[in-house]
TrEMBL record:
Entry keyword annotation includes Repeat: yes
This protein's UniProt keywords: Leucine-rich repeat, Repeat
Entry protein name: Uncharacterized protein
GO molecular function: signaling adaptor activity
Length: 489
């Protein structure tokens, strides 16, 4: 009886073992895998199968091939072949149950993933692809193809994408209008000439650095937290009402206007080497770091109560002592550009630079290096003899409040006010981007930027004359000797 039981159990175990060893693998998938494994790898003298530890393709133990995971139906469920020194053309089209695929950092020339509708994750960065078709991979949520040689990329059939990394490719445009779920988008070090992010409200991280973009608008992306777009050709940049935005790196562009109004979470603004005359961060109460060097900036508007952590780097701009931020905020601020202006010889008005934080400035005048003593000096209001009319004098200004900075003014002296016939009284009125002058008699007006560049010269008739001017600070000089600093709101 015992012998019968033992024999019966042996038969049961043997049949189970036969069933285990008899597991079959999808013939089509096996054939495509073999076709790839027989190809030359990235390492000279070796085949792909050798890089995966397969001794021979004559008798492959598919269950134990490195990086392959099979499901109970004998189909490939995942492939993990990153950094395996693989080469050639990989065709996994029609792998119906393939969910996840890693083949990054190899030297693959092409890859076919068409028909893999269940795939959710595809990472193939740092290969040698010139094209890839993911139009049938409709369930993809994460796709990385960075550092290939793609000249175009179509993701319009991948509405579930939350992560897209396409940096280091060669395409000039990409359509993201059907990717409303996108949270992370990285397209740095490429050739992008334009980008529209208005259809991607869930974006949190965007990297567009080192491309060929000329404009960028991320306004109203309320979930955006980090944005890098430095080293492009940007001239305009809008980021208004990005209430979650904490970091902007937009240096080394050609930006002339920046809108960060409503960016209440903004902490870091790296913006050096642009062409920004004015910067307004007054609606960014949490700002902690601004790098603004080499911009030509003359006006910086800070929040009403800046954070004590705020640090600013603003050297190589057009600030003066009176327009520089508070010294405690400054990490670096010198040098600043030379100021060039013209003024009547008996009315050179530098009173705005005279006293800073209760400390008087020191003014030193020279004519081609030779010291010059003004005829009069009253708290930064200077006058010189008529013999200096037509000359350009140099004035250097220092103040202990900003010990590292020496400001230089080059002042071309014109006819003194005393020699100009007083023609009229003029009333000034300003409103949004508008300056209006009302004259009782004809008068000539000169309108200068704060750094002395002439914008308008016009003879005014009786009555009101209005000039359209961008927001900023201007110097208005009248032929009756009146000189006023005007702020256009």
């Amino acid at each position: 009886m015992k012998q019968i039981v033992v024999v019966f159990l042996s038969i049961v175990c043997l049949s189970g073992a036969l069933r285990l060893t008899a597991q079959t693998y999808n013939a089509q998938e096996v054939a495509k895998l073999k076709a790839f494994l027989i190809q030359n790898s990235a390492e000279k003298g070796k085949k792909n199968y050798e890089q995966l530890g397969v001794a021979s393709l004559d008798a492959v133990d598919w269950k134990n091939v490195s990086g392959l995971t099979w499901n109970a139906n004998g189909r490939v469920e995942s492939i993990n072949w990153n950094k395996k020194k693989l080469g050639g053309d990989l065709d996994v089209s029609g792998f119906a149950d393939l969910l996840v695929m890693h083949c990054e950092e190899n030297r693959l020339q092409s890859m076919n993933v068409t028909g893999n509708t269940k795939m959710t994750y595809l990472d193939c960065f740092n290969n040698e692809f010139k094209s890839i078709d993911i139009s049938t991979n409709v369930n993809l949520t994460r796709f990385c193809c960075r550092y290939n040689q793609l000249t175009k990329l179509d993701v319009t059939h991948n509405p579930k994408l939350t992560f897209l990394c396409s940096s280091g490719n060669r395409f000039e445009h990409i359509d993201l209008s059907n990717n409303a779920e996108l949270v992370e988008f990285y397209a740095a070090n490429g050739k992008l000439k334009s980008i529209d992010l208005s259809h991607n409200p869930k974006l949190r991280d965007v990297a567009l650095r080192t491309n060929q973009l000329t404009s960028l608008d991320v306004s109203n992306l309320t979930k955006l937290e980090r944005l890098t777009c430095y080293e492009n050709n940007l001239t305009t940049f809008k980021a208004s009402d990005c209430k979650s935005l904490k970091l902007i790196r937009a240096y080394e562009n050609k930006i002339t206007s920046l809108d960060v109004s409503g960016c209440t979470a903004l902490e870091t603004l790296a913006f050096y080497s642009n062409n920004l005359a004015e910067l307004d961060v007054s609606e960014c109460p949490n700002i902690e770091f601004i790098s603004l060097m080499n911009n030509g900036t003359h006006t910086l508007k800070l929040p009403p109560n800046p954070s004590d952590k705020l640090r600013i780097m603003c050297e190589r701009n057009r600030f003066t002592f009176s327009t520089l931020p508070r010294p405690s905020f400054l990490r670096s601020y010198a040098p600043q550009a030379k100021v060039t202006l013209s003024a009547p010889s008996d009315k050179i008005d530098l009173r705005s630079e005279y006293k800073l934080n209760g400390t008087a400035s020191v003014f030193v005048w020279t004519d081609r290096g030779a010291p010059v003593i003004p005829e009069a000096n009253r708290d930064g209001l200077f006058s010189f003899a008529e013999s200096y009319v037509g000359k350009t004098l140099t004035c250097t200004v220092t103040n202990p409040a900003y010990p590292k900075l020496t400001m230089t003014y080059e002042v071309s002296l014109t006819e003194p006010v005393a020699n100009i016939i007083v023609e009229s009284e003029v009333a000034f009125r300003t409103q949004r981007e508008l300056l209006c002058l009302t004259a009782s008699r004809p008068v000539t007006v000169h309108i200068y930027t704060i750094i002395g560049a002439l914008l308008r010269k016009q003879r005014l008739s009786e009555g009101e004359t209005c000039f359209t001017l961008p927001q900023g600070i201007y110097i208005v000089s009248l032929s009756n000797g009146t000189v006023r600093k005007i702020v256009i709101p």
